[in-house]
Input
Amino acid sequence: MNLLSSNLLAQLAIDLPLQNTLLVKSENLAPQHDLNKAQRHKLKANSFNCPKPVPSHVALFDDVITTGSTIDACISQLKEAGATQVDVWSLARTPAKGFEDN
Output
């Protein structure tokens, strides 16, 4: 993810400090492709922690957002650690079930 975020910031000519140690994955989870949104949220709730204080404004970089459960878990942990604003930057978002392209 560091490669993704550093390249994006370079292309946008934005000078922001990158810190890939603000969030630490506290447990490895089994593949979740067969789980529904509620099941994913339950599994992810305590999957991350912040080992040190965080800045008040944080930007999260993610390649693909599927259900949003990972992002929700990360935002919760960052806010518990002191962030007052969390922005989410992603390259792609999977469509909701039932979405049809007309």
Observations:
- The CA atoms of residues 66 and 95 lie 8 Å apart.
- The chain has a mean pLDDT of 78.
